[in-house]
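[Meeting: bench + compute handoff]

Bench side (C.D.) handed over the final construct sequence. Compute side (W.E.) agreed to return the predicted structure before the next meeting so the bench team could plan truncations. Sequence as handed over:
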Amino acid sequence: MSNLKAFRVSGGQAKEIPGSSVALERQLQTLIEANMEAMLGIRFLASEYAMGRHRGRIDSLGHTKFHGRIR
């Protein structure tokens, strides 16, 4: 995500926040995970979730309707 940018919005104006894209991505991911339910209505389940045989990962895993228990 080398082109990732973050912005601060004030008075209806967006101003880019300078900084490292890696640091910004991690900060943004942490913020979204901490507030996922309030902002998106999604219950946060896991960060950097490994996808098994596909050898990929999901940055932030959540679920919209949760039934049962987390194991």
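W.E. noted at the follow-up: The longest helix spans residues 21-40. C.D. will use this when planning the next construct.
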